[in-house]
């Protein structure tokens, strides 16, 4: 494997991780913040939309243009043209990276889901009583942690299909 291809794979894996973190942390809570914004100010709505576009758009641009980023930064400049790395194929490296990202996601959100389920069973549904206990989970945190855990499980179980999305259509040797 050439060094340039290795750098393209590394940049794409980092961008995939940034995209998954953005989808798991920002997107699930955004509708609740917009819905429960009491003032309905336009600045908050504009900032939310810009934040959503940036948090999803920037990693997608990085994923689609990883080879241009490697060429722009000249990452393979100090390596000879016939210098190769003895690593598995690109598809295998992407599979390992996607499994690793999904595993980190699951490990990060299992404690949140367990604590939210425990507090939900202990204090009841949010908003079910007139006085809400301060430790009771909000509906946004329950949905966000459950969605994040589910996304981690989906990424881990579908690693083959997800890694195939990030392979170049025309392989460069």
Task: Report on this structure.
The chain has 173 residues and is an all-alpha fold. 69% of the residues lie in helices and 0% in strands. The protein contains seven helices and no strands. It has helices spanning 3-25, 30-35, 42-64, 66-73, 90-123, 139-157, 159-165. Helix 1 packs antiparallel against helix 3 and helix 1 (3-25) runs antiparallel to helix 6. The longest helix has 34 residues, at 90-123. The mean pLDDT is 80.
Rounded mean pLDDT is 80
Q: What structural class do you assign from the helix and strand content?
A: mainly alpha
Main β-sheet description: none
Rg, please? Answer: 21 Å
Give the total of beta strands: 0
> How would you classify the quaternary structure?
single chain
Strand content: under 5%
- The number of helical segments is 7
Distance between the termini: 8 Å
H-E order = HHHHHHH
- Name the poorly predicted regions: none
